[in-house]
Fold each of these.
Amino acid sequence: MQNTVHFVLQAKGGIGKSFVSTLLAQHVMNETGAVRCFDTDQENTTFAHYAALAVRHIPLADQSRVINPKRFDSLMETLLTEEGNFVVDTGANTFANLLAYMVENEVFPMMNDVHKTTYVHTIVGGGDMLADTANGFYAIAQKVSGTRIVLWFNEHFGEIKTAEGKPFMETQAYKLCESRLTGRVTLYRHNPLTFGEDIRKLNTKRHTILQALASPEYSLMEKQRLRTFAREVFGQLKALKL
C-alpha cells in the first residue's frame, strides 16, 4: 500500500462515516506504519478528536457558515504533491460540495496522473437508513470515475433489505452500480448489549482498537469482543488488498 488516498463519502448524516474513517485509518496504520488523516466535517468533527490518529481539521466554511469550494484546493494540493497514505472524512454538510468539486475539477484523473491510487468509501445502512443511503451510494457510483469504490454495509441500523424485504444487492440500484465496485465491507450486527455497548464505549472515548486493548478502562471480555470485531473488519479490508 503506497500513495493511497481514501475518501469517505455519504450524503446521509449519522450513518457512521467517522467510524469507518477511524477503522480505515487504523487499517492503513497497521499495514504501513503511518497514516495522514483529515476531517472536513464543519459541524461534527468526530474524526478530528481521535488524538492517536493526529487528524487535521480542514475549515471549509466562511463566516456565514457557507461552504467555499475554493478551500478544497489546499487539501488537494497536499494530497497531490505529498507522499504517504491518506484518509479523508467528509461530513453530510460537505458531501454535495466535495462531490461536485471532484467531478468539476477532474480530481481522480489528476490523482492517477501523479501515481496516487484513490478509493471512495461509501456506506449503506440497514433499516430506516437504507433508502437515503442507497440514494447516496447510487449518486456517487454514477458521478465519479477514475477511482475505486468500496461499499460498506452497516448492519447496526437493521438488515440491509428494502421495506418489502428484498436484499439490497438484489435491487436495481445496486445492480446498476455493481460493476463499479472494487469490493464490499460489512459491519456486522452483533448482540447490542455486549458488542454494541463495547463499540459505543470505544467511540465515546475516541479510542483506537490498540488503545482499548492496552487500557485498564476495558474489561477482559470487552477486549475479547473488540478483538473479534477488529479481526472481522480488518480481515475484510486486508482481503481487498487496498
Note: The mean pLDDT is 94.
Amino acid sequence: MKADRSVHAPWWYKTPWHAELAQVTIRMFIKGSVFAAVLMGGLSFSSAASPRTKEAMEPATRLQVFLDRSNFSPGKLDGRFGEFTVKALNLYRQSKGEQPKPAAPAKKDATPDVTGLDFSTATPVFITYTVTDADLATVGELGATVELKAKQKSLPYKDAAEAIAEKFHSDVDFLEELNPGKMKAIKAGDHLNVPNVEPFDLAAVKNLTPGSSTAVNDEEDTTEPNGAPPADKPDTVTLSVSVDVKSGMLQVQEGAHIIAAYPVTVGSAHTESPIGEWKVKGVAKMPNFRYDKEMLNHGKRSGDFQLLPPGPNNPVGVMWIQLNKKGIGLHGTDDPDSIGRSASHGCVRLANWDVARLATRVKGGVPVSIH
C-alpha cells in the first residue's frame, strides 16, 4: 500500500517541488558541513600538483623545438607531448617517407617514438634571452570592447609576457614555469629562459609593404591584394596547400612531398570552412579587419560594423592570405591558445608565427584544398 504522505510527512514535504527544495537544502547543508570540516582541518585533500621543473619539461620541449625548427609546427610550445606535437611528428615522418604512426600516444602525455630524429637542431633546448626596449615597444593599451579597440591606432600586445611568449612560440603559462616570479613585471635587460626556436619578429612583419588598404575580409572577389597575380596564373605550379578539417592540420606540399605543416582552427558546424578547391589571391600584412557580427555569424554583410586597426591583437592577427572566396582566408589570430581548440567563423586560423611562415611560401594562384 502506498504511504499517505499527507499524514506521515512534514508540511514542507507534501508536494513534489517542496520535496525537491528540501533535498537541495539538505545537499547544501552537507556540502557546507564538509567545507567547514576542511577549514577546521577535519578533512584533507591532496594539494595541487607541484610546478614542473625545467628538467622535467626538457624532453617534450626538445621534440617541440625540433619540429618547430623543421617547419612542422606543434603549435604553442608548452613542454608537453600533446595532440598537435604528435600530429606534427607523424607528418614530419611522412615527409621523410616513413609510415604514419598512431594519431596519439596510448597514454596522455606519454613519450612518442623519437627513434631516428636528429636533435642537433634543438640543442640547447633552452636559451637565455635578454628583453629589449624593442620588445616593450610592442606593448600598449588594449581596449576591453570591440568599440574601444576600433578607436585605437593599432592593437598591440597587452603586456610584455604576451609579447615574449609569442616571440618564442610559447604558452605564457609555460614561460612562467620556466621563469618563476619573473613574468609579471618584465623590463628591458631582464634575462628569461625561453625555448630555442627561431624568434617570431613582429617588426619584420610591420616593416613589410602593407597589403590591402581596405579591410581584408571585405575584398570583392575580383580584387587582388598587394597586386598579386590573378588566381588563374600561379607563380609556382608545384606548390599547394591542403587543410584537413578533421585533423586540424594544414600541410604545404611541393608536388606530392610535404614540406611544412601547421595546426589550425577551422569553422564550426554553424559557420563551416568552405569545403572545396580554392586558390590564393594574395597576401596582406598587418591587415585591418571589418568586424561585422552579421557577416561573421551568418555570412551576410550589414551596416553595423567596426573597423579594427592592425596589430598582433587584431582578430585576424598579423597576416591575411586571401582565397578566391569572398570573406574567406588563411590568417593569424589574437589568441594562440584557441588554435585547434575552438571554431572560427569559416576561415582557417593559425598562430601568428605560423601564418607568417606560411605567407613566405604562398603566392597568388597557389591551390588550397579544404577537405
Note: The chain has eleven helices and twelve strands.
